[in-house]
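Let's practice the habit of predicting before peeking. Look at the sequence and jot down your guess about where helices and strands might fall. Then scroll down.
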Amino acid sequence: MRILEAIMEANQRAADATKASLNLADFADSLPLVGLTCIDPRLNRLIPEMLGVPEEHFIWLRNAGNIITGPLSSTMRSLALACAIKGGKEIALIGHTDCLVCKSTMLKLTDSFRTLGVDRSKLPENLNEYFGLFASERQNVIRGAEIVRQSPLIGSKIPVHGLLIDIQNGRLEWLVNGYQTLGAATPSLVESVRQTATGALQQTAADALDLAAAKLPEFKIGEMKFPEFKIGETTIDPNQWLAEVQSIASAGTGPQSVEISPKPGQEHKFDKSRKYRVIGADQKVYGPIDGAKILDWIADGRIDWQTASQIEGSGEWKPLSGWADSPAPPAIPLPPRIKPAPQLHKAKRR
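Done guessing? Here is the structure:
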């Protein structure tokens, strides 16, 4: 009889809340046993009692949901080192009933993180993949045992078992018999990396399709949809209009400081007699402002020669340097003065 067979037999004999008894002397060559379980505190007492393996012969690894995400994951690293350095002889993945990770949904998870002050935007895009959420405790154990068995970090001579423990009475269910897969060929490290990358690409593609399906509206052949408007309804957002008016009205405060990049002699070509409007670093419109004030703002570092500007009365926006480089338009000549028509006087009769 091998050690897992003895553990299962002792567990089935044990009554509720009774420790399983195991004669360790018969299984010295199969110890220590490496176990991966969930972090649920209810397992703290249950696992040692129901396995019957003393703590000095049990290498206990734990993570939330006893989840293994890939053959080269950090959990796989710990399992591999437990065997290579600590001398683990067999591996048992032990799930449990009433698992809270299994009961969690993405909505509950995001709400819980939000309560802790973690916004959804700071979490990974695919929560299901990152946290390894699952819908069945049994399937999670079976899948995890398969990943461990296929990992190039675990030798083919190490049995990998999958167990499920009842959180109420401690009964064990043997889901994966690792003795049946002993000696199975494991993929190379390169092949495992390739499989992991392929799985990640497939998951990314599936997520992209799901996202597209969620965002694209449904149309029927020949159907066209147009925005609906009511008679007298305006398409202008009054709040946006008010914000624009307020930004222009606040021109007297001046824009915030920005970096200056002057060109030598440029201010000498700048027409200070004209009035300008400028867009500050805060994206607000300031003006109309006379050219002398513009030069003062440039000297103070509030704006620079690349600031978007407009001459009052024109509809063109361009950098201030564009107005400095452009020759001033010639003054419009006044029309010639019109001489008054000579007045004709009637000759007086004598």
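How did you do? The chain has a mean pLDDT of 77.
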